[in-house]
UniProtKB/TrEMBL annotation:
This is Exodeoxyribonuclease 7 large subunit. It comes from Paraburkholderia diazotrophica. Keywords: Cytoplasm, Exonuclease, Hydrolase, Nuclease. The keyword Cytoplasm applies. It comes from the Bacteria. Residues 20-111 form the OB-fold nucleic acid binding domain. The gene is xseA.
Length: 459
């Protein structure tokens, strides 16, 4: 123990030391943890509780005493099983104290069933040995028959597993016969008896698949299926073997040696037996497929027969067909001779039509020219009439404005004889000047002898 404890320091301070409860409990807990190392403790489970946090709280007891235990979630999640009320177990724990209550308890790190440690070590040694010999090689294992003619069962006649297997087989495959090879499944020398039944089933060769099964139990109850003699008998069996021992979490050497492992005996029965309903359904499907295939084959054969019947004709009918074929050839020949002429005519008609389309229509142009000539004649006639009317109008106007008409009214025109210009002013009248006098009925040359000009506003 550590010499520097709370009690020694308190005693040094005074004879009547006062220690708080928490300090006392902490000191006791420290002393317990240092005094008692990890130890295996056996007992019966009592008051087991799984908290919402995942921690386990329970007690282990025997006839004289009991001890509280706690297994925290970090350790409990790796446990191979969950203890139940009344189970015989062994715990690997550290002795501690729960300081708030001052209660002594075991802090559990591992848990196993009583005696499981030794048996489990033997299990691992045998498993490693047989695995090294190749008894568990997956390439050695065989597939189960899809449609077994008979099924064998190696188990006890009083086992509940036998009733489960028979019930399952009767429900799934009542048409398959079942052979039971009775042997005890628990007790001394059971492994050899089970192996003997496996060998008998192989010698008789009356089954196509063999089930080795029993119900669940502790490792001690299932130990017969971990014996080497049974494992070697299963591995040497010519008949495929299905192992259905215990529950889904139970593993035995027989499971590794068998061709197929089933989680339960009922599961083994389901593996080896095809379901009758599915077989009947598959049979109906195959029957329908066969009927459809046969019907299609008959249709093809009938069609082939019809084709052959059409090819098989009498000589008279063959001659008639050849005569008809000859007539068709003659018609094709005549048509082939007339085709160039018909094509040439069609080509000529096409060229003629194109020539007519591009050739000018003289009659239409002639009619156009005639129409234009008539319009020109009418236009010239109207223009001549207009010019004639204009000339007449101008002549009438000229007649009205003519000097002769003025002279006829008594007037005379006096022109200079030399220049021929009209004399307009009296000042131009000079004696001796020659003048030409124009009258209505003629003209006369005159010479002025005496002139007396006189200016007036009118006649």
């Amino acid at each position: 123990m550590n010499s520097e404890s709370p009690f020694s320091s308190a005693a040094g301070a005074g004879g009547d030391a006062v220690v708080p409860v928490s300090v006392l409990n902490r000191a006791i807990g420290t002393m317990l943890e240092r005094t008692f190392p990890l130890v295996w403790v056996s007992g019966e489970v009592s008051n087991f509780t799984r908290a919402a946090s995942g921690h386990w709280y329970f007690s282990i007891k025997d006839a004289q005493a009991q001890m509280r235990c706690v297994m925290f979630r970090g350790r409990a999640q790796y446990a191979e099983f969950t203890p139940r009320e009344g189970d015989k177990i062994e715990v690997r724990a550290l002795v501690t104290m729960y300081e708030p209550r001052g209660e002594l308890q075991l802090n559990v790190e591992a848990v196993r069933r009583t005696g499981q440690g030794r048996l489990y070590e033997a299990f691992l040694r045998l498993k490693a040995q047989l695995e090294a010999e190749g008894l568990f090689d997956p390439q050695r294992k065989r597939a189960l028959p899809a449609h077994p003619r008979s099924i064998g069962i190696v188990t006890s006649l009083q086992a509940a597993a036998l009733r489960d297997v028979l019930t399952t087989l009767a429900r799934r495959a009542p048409h398959i016969p079942v052979v039971v090879y009775p042997a005890p499944v628990q007790g001394a020398g059971v492994g050899a008896k089970l192996a003997a039944m496996v060998e008998i089933a192989n010698r008789r060769r009356e089954v196509d698949v063999l089930i080795v099964c029993r119900g669940g139990g502790s490792i001690e109850d299932l130990w017969a299926f971990n014996e080497e003699v049974l494992a070697r008998a299963i591995a040497a069996s010519d008949v495929p073997v299905v192992s259905g021992v215990g529950h889904e979490t139970d593993f035995t050497i027989a499971d590794f040696a068998a061709d197929v492992r089933a989680p339960t005996p009922t599961g083994a029965a389901e593996l080896v037996s095809p379901q009758r309903v599915l077989l009947l359904r598959d049979l109906d499907h195959r029957h329908a497929s066969l009927a459809r295939g046969f019907g299609r084959m008959m249709e093809r054969r009938a069609q082939q027969l019809d084709w052959l019947a059409r090819r098989l004709v009498s000589p008279a009918e063959r001659l008639a067909r050849q005569r008809a074929h000859l007539q068709q050839l003659c018609a094709r020949l005549a048509s082939a001779g007339a085709r160039p002429v018909r094509d040439a005519r069609a080509q000529f008609s096409l060229v003629k039509m194109r020539w007519q389309r591009w050739c000018p229509d003289l009659s239409q142009h002639r009619a156009t020219v005639n129409g234009l000539a008539e319009r020109l004649d009418r236009a010239l006639l109207r223009q001549h009439e207009r010019h004639l009317a204009r000339v007449e109008t101008l002549a009438a106007r000229l007649e009205v404005l003519s000097p002769k008409r003025t002279l006829e009214r008594g007037y005379a025109a006096l022109l200079d004889a030399q220049s021929g210009r009209a004399v307009r002013a009296p000042s131009a009248l000079k004696p001796g000047r020659r003048m030409t006098l124009h009258l209505a009925e003629g003209s006369a040359d005159i010479a002025l002898s005496d002139v007396q000009p006189r200016l007036t506003d009118g006649f």
